[in-house]
Design goal:
mainly beta, Phosphatidylethanolamine-binding Protein, nine-stranded antiparallel sheet
Length: 182
């Protein structure tokens, strides 16, 4: 499911800092981001100028570098999810990191504690294109992984439940790419 983000909810001065136009709302509801998320792979960069871009699956396997513009300092959580797994309830958690540091000068998000290690895109052969989606949240000072979270169970991950149970606020940034396994 794709959603056209209602730009009328954003002040005109903030239009340079909006969610990608076709934000996958089956990952996280539409929100007003505090920053643009740039995802950089060795051969490709995804930003709001090309959100949802179709990239060869072989060129998005390495864990990317992420940055926020404008730069935000602090500690962040990161999720990367594939919402297009069938059946529809079976979102796959491809990455979950806590304790990521945001550099106030460069915007680069670095370090962190991989609660589920990076697992690059890899939709089943023959599936339609999948939309791999990154969502970044501020990490509360007293953050604890909610009871019942099992890092070994990546299938049927429900971000909304995790966010509610962890007491997280709205995301600060998001981004996605499209790919398919040939």
């Amino acid at each position: 499911m794709k959603f056209l983000f209602p730009l009328s909810l954003i002040p005109l001065a903030a239009l340079a800092q909006v969610l990608p136009v076709s934000w996958p709302t089956n990952v996280a509801p539409a929100f007003t981001p505090l920053a643009n998320l740039t995802v950089t792979f060795p051969k490709h960069t995804i930003s709001n100028a090309n959100s949802g871009v179709f990239l060869p699956i072989t060129e998005v396997q390495a864990e990317p570098t992420l940055s926020l513009d404008p730069p935000l300092s602090g500690t962040f959580l990161l999720f990367m999810i594939d919402p297009d797994v069938q059946p529809a309830w079976a979102n796959i958690l491809h990455a979950f990191k806590t304790d990521i540091t945001g550099d106030a000068t460069t915007g680069v998000l670095s370090g962190g504690n991989p609660r589920t290690p990076w697992f690059g895109p890899g939709a089943p052969k023959g599936d339609p294109p999948h939309h791999y989606t990154w969502v970044v949240y501020r990490q509360p000072a007293n953050f604890r992984v909610p009871n019942g979270f099992n890092a070994g169970n990546r299938i049927a991950f429900k971000l909304a439940d995790f966010v509610r149970n962890a007491g997280l606020g709205a995301p600060v940034a998001g981004q996605y790419l499209t790919t398919v396994t040939p």
